[in-house]
Amino acid sequence: MSSPLAIDVADLSKKYGDRMALSHANFEVPMGSICGFVGPNGSGKTTTIRMLLGLITPSTGSGHVLGESITQPEKYLPRVGAMIEGPAFYPALTGKQNLAVLAKLGGLATDSIQKLLELVDLGDRGDSKFKTYSLGMKQRLGIAAALLPNPKLLVLDEPTNGLDPAGIHEIRTLLRKLADSGTTVFVSSHLLSEIEMISDYLVMLRQGKVIFSGKTIDLLAAQKPVIIAKPENSKDLKKLFEIANNLGKKAEIKDDIVEVIGDSDFSAKLNKSAFEAGITLTSLTPIRPTLEDTFFEMTGD
Amino acid sequence: MINVIRAELTKLRRPSLSISTVVAVTFVTGLVTSLLFLLVDSPEGNGERGTRISREVLELSSGISISFKNSAGLLGIVALCIFAAQTAQEYTYGTLRNLLVRQPSRMKILVGKLIAMKMFAVVMVSISALLALSLSYIFAGVMDVSTAAWSTPDARSAVLRGFVNVLIATIGFGIFGMILGLLFRSPITAISIGVIWNLIIEGLLSVFISNLSKYFPGQLLSVVADGGTEKISYKYALLTSYSFLLAGLLIVAVLFKKRDVAN
């Protein structure tokens, strides 16, 4: 039996005039996962998120969030927390007051506000006006607002924008913790390294089209690992290239290294053959392609 | 609905808005009341658009509520600005998307907002009424205007009627502001158009084309605040102005419900 889905969309499209912002998207996000939603700027990420949250109407197609149709957002939004396209709050209100507005609006208890502010490291700045916050603080307040309803599904659009490395690390830890407690996290970002570190699941967009949706591990495993071999003398580059070829591996000379397509198990064999041929290797590094490498390979960008 | 009203009141209670509103209401009411009494003997007039309100009229039982009623037009402009800004700023700040995620029923947001702003208008008009009555007594003493008739049951009834009419007019101006706010989605544009329309366009056109004021919402709301005039009856002004506002509100409500929130 397949796991229940937090999000599933079928043939979802959005057209603005002649421009297709999202074209016939199909993807699923399993419950309890952290799903990275990646793609370059303008690829349709925010448009998709807005449709999932009932803010814009799809041109065609359908979608479900927490088992309810996206045409009836009132049925699922009370269980959804979201931060869309950056934090938007009232500048003249304090952080606490801004959260109180949203809590009251959703009929939620306001007594969890201080706890949430502390969770995002704003415990001592809750009484400061929003307009005095730095970009990172605004972002944290946005995340606190998204957590207000104790959501089953958390939708975050570029949550690490403006955060310093420590802040990014904290958010990553927080998202992992939320996922471990059963919250599904749907997080969009163009920082592929960040997404690679936290997401179990991936939806990749390019020019309004879904180019991959599935487990992150499956995507990365499908990519060919490479071994970077560097001989002590550059005159041995060609010889090393031929050894790799004779062992049945595709290789390429790049500057002062030979890049061989093969997994880490092949490293020992290559090292031994190079040694027997009188070649000393100064380094031999098996490398698994990153999400960024994979993305660029898939998109051809 | 109650949740939306509570959330809106949190925003409306912010010191920057409440203090500036009290200052504006005090200024408007103080200015109108002081001019009404201090220029009572001036041949240039002491009422709206140079009209003359004599000492004898001020001494009538209805005299106590004249300054308050005369403040209605400017109070309306204050309400128009507040309602327009409170509505349009949700677009410019981008906060509308947060509101709609927490309360997906757009009609509840709209109606809740309107009710909360009406409550704000009640407070605003009450402050103006208290101030106008207090200042009327003070300036009456300064200008030797007799206040003997101001404590009669007729005077109390005139004050009550005046309060209700000014409130209806002020809320009407506010609704006009809200319509513009939803239509233009920018506080500056909505306020500019609202103020220019009410203070300049309606005024000028009514001067040059007689009878046109019978069809202008701003002019009609001023008539409502006055409790009717010789030319336009109270009932006509109330029904016509609110019919316009209701039609406008229905149009923007449909737009608000259907329009994508894409900013």
Please render the helix and strand layout as text.
The complex is a heterodimer of chains A (301) and B (263).
Chain A: E1 5-16, E2 19-30, E3 34-38, H1 45-52, E4 60-65, E5 68-69, E6 80-83, H2 95-105, H3 113-119, H4 135-147, E7 153-157, H5 165-180, E8 184-189, H6 192-198, E9 201-206, E10 209-215, H7 216-221, E11 226-231, H8 237-246, E12 251-254, E13 257-261, H9 265-276, E14 281-287, H10 291-299
Parallel strand pairs in A: 3-8, 3-9, 6-7, 7-8
Antiparallel strand pairs in A: 1-2, 1-4, 4-5, 9-10, 11-13, 11-14, 12-13
Helix pairs in contact in A: 3-4
Chain B: H1 2-12, H2 15-38, H3 55-58, H4 66-70, H5 72-92, H6 96-102, H7 106-142, H8 153-184, H9 187-208, H10 217-226, H11 234-258
What does the model show?
- The complex is a heterodimer of chains A (301) and B (263).
- Chain A is of the alpha/beta class and 301 residues long.
- Helix content of chain A is 33%, strand content 29%.
- Chain A has 10 helices and 14 strands.
- In chain A, the strands form 3 sheets. A 6-stranded mixed sheet of chain A has the order 6-7-8-3-9-10, sandwiched between helices.
- In chain A, strand 1 (5-16) and strand 2 (19-30) form a beta hairpin.
- Chain B has one domain (2-257).
- Chain B is globular, with a radius of gyration of 19 Å.
- The model of chain B has no long low-confidence stretch (mean pLDDT 89).
- The A-B interface holds A 50, 53-57, 73-74, 77, 80, 82, 84-86, 88-93, 97, 100-102, 104-107, 145, 148-149 and B 3-4, 6-7, 10-11, 14, 16-17, 89, 93-95, 97-105, 260-262.
